[in-house]
Design brief:
Layout: H1 2-27, E1 40-47, E2 52-57, E3 63-70, E4 78-79, E5 89-92, E6 100-114, E7 117-122, E8 129-132, E9 143-147, E10 152-155, E11 164-171, E12 178-182, E13 186-189, E14 197-207, E15 214-226, E16 236-238, E17 246-252, E18 259-266, E19 276-283, E20 292-298, E21 308-317, E22 323-325, E23 332-334, E24 340-346, E25 349-354, E26 362-368, E27 376-381, E28 385-388, E29 390-391, E30 394-395, E31 401-412, E32 415-418, E33 428-431
Antiparallel strand pairs: 1-2, 2-5, 3-4, 3-6, 6-7, 6-8, 9-10, 10-13, 11-12, 11-14, 14-15, 16-17, 17-20, 18-19, 18-21, 21-22, 21-23, 24-25, 25-28, 26-27, 26-31, 29-30, 31-32, 31-33
Length: about 425
């Protein structure tokens, strides 16, 4: 009886040992077998701050894949999926932002031997493949540094984990976007539209191993970044008064301008000796919101009856509120209207005297039979007096009232500049 129990126990032990041996034989992979296809064409397909997507190729429906990851190239690999998977793609999750990871893949052929029984043949593990996650922070301190008429330079702070930056820019109010990449922390955008403003966004990224893909993080945006203004056009001066105390100036507005600088000079000593009278700066609160900009400049010491000239330049502001000036406009000339100091009837007509204007090279006398219209040029003279004898081609008629005024002119670059300003002109009259 005792012997029989011992025999049964021995058979049970042997049976268990045989089962264990069979399990070992059927589940433990064999050393890398060259008959198993190699993993090839590994490629990163996408990325976020905590995940990456990978695809690869390996022929055979009976192939499974073991995925291992590490933050070091040569060591520290751990089994990612814990059990081999059948698909030739994977999305790795729970990763750190702006980091580099290494992935290696081992192909395994599974052969069914029966119900619940199979054998495995392990192939060659791939070389480690580099993948990256996107940085988790946007570039800070995006700053407008400077501009030219068709360029804008911006800079920003480096983002940890980033090795490339993308600049996305578009002209304000338009839908067309343009991009530029750089590995540095500044960029100069070129071939921009003149007198325009731009929306500029910068985002940090990390390059894929193949060099073509990018893992992009979030971005920082700066709106209404201006180019340097071009030359101001359409400058007009309203100031043709007998007793000039201020000058009203208008010019065409520019979308890129934050403001304008106006300079007023006396213009009677020659172009190289002109004396600045005043300079003012006018802010443009709503850039590009109006077609015209207006300004007024008060003038002192008008008793000398000077010829004046005005010029304008626009400016834009960078991130430090530094003014980026455009070029000056062409000069616009203005003077007080010559004041008729004496008028009298003489045998041949009406004699008129007027005060001199400093800087004037000549005077033009206009005559009409109506106060507000019909004026015709009677004479151009370098003197400050004349005798009006005709209206047009006709001699003056006795008992008829004639209206007249004088315009001062200055010769600049072989062209005569005038201070005349339409309805602001004062008229005189006398009956012949």
């Amino acid at each position: 009886m005792k012997k029989s129990s011992k025999s049964v126990w021995s058979r049970l032990v042997m049976t268990f040992a045989a089962a264990c041996l069979l399990m070992f034989v059927t589940t433990v992979p064999v050393k890398a077998d060259s008959s198993v296809p190699l993993v090839a064409d590994m490629k990163q397909t996408d990325a976020s701050t905590n995940s990456v997507g990978i695809i690869w190729s390996c022929p055979g429906s009976d192939i499974r894949f073991k995925i291992e990851t590490s933050e070091q190239l040569s060591t520290g690999y751990t089994d990612y999926n814990k059990r081999p998977q059948s698909s030739a793609s994977v999305t790795l999750t729970k990763l750190g932002a702006g980091k580099v990871y290494y992935v290696r893949i081992t192909p395994i052929r599974y052969t069914m031997e029966g119900i619940g029984k199979y054998t495995t043949v392990t192939g060659t593990t791939s070389q480690p493949f580099r993948v990256v996650t996107a940085p988790d922070s946007a570039p800070a301190s995006l700053t407008h540094v400077k501009s030219s008429t068709d360029t804008i330079k911006v800079k920003w702070s480096a983002v940890p984990g980033a090795d490339v930056y993308q600049v996305i820019y578009s002209q304000s109010g338009t839908a067309n976007e343009f991009t530029k990449e750089t590995t540095g922390t500044s960029v100069t955008l070129k071939k921009l539209s003149k007198d325009a403003r731009y929306t500029i966004k910068v985002r940090a990224g990390k390059k894929y191993t193949d060099g073509t893909g990018r893992a992009w993080g979030s971005g920082t945006t700066k709106y209404d970044v201006p180019v340097k203004p071009t030359k101001v056009e359409g400058v007009k001066v309203k100031g043709y008064y007998q007793n000039l105390s201020k000058i009203s100036i208008t010019n065409k507005a520019k979308a890129c301008a934050d403001g304008y600088q106006y300079q007023l000079y006396t213009a009677y000593k020659g172009q190289d000796k002109e004396t600045k009278v005043k300079s003012i700066t006018v802010n443009q609160n709503n850039p590009g919101s109006s077609n015209q900009v207006s300004a007024s400049m008060k003038i002192s010491a008008l008793k000398n009856h000077n010829f004046y000239k005005v010029r304008v330049r626009a400016y834009s502001l960078n991130s430090k509120n530094e003014k980026i000036y455009g070029v000056w406009s062409s000069w616009k000339y203005v003077s007080p209207q010559p004041d008729v100091t004496k008028k009298q009837k003489v045998n041949k007509g009406i004699k008129v005297n007027w005060d001199k204007i400093k800087g004037a090279d000549r005077y033009v006398v206009y005559v009409s039979t109506k106060k507000d219209s019909g004026y015709k040029k009677f004479q151009t003279t370098g003197k400050n007096s004349t005798t009006i004898t005709k209206y047009g081609k006709n001699k003056l008629k006795s008992g008829k009232t004639y209206y007249f005024y004088v315009v001062a002119q200055k010769k600049v670059d072989n062209k005569y500049q005038s201070g005349k300003a339409g309805n602001a002109t004062k008229r005189w009259s006398m009956t012949y």
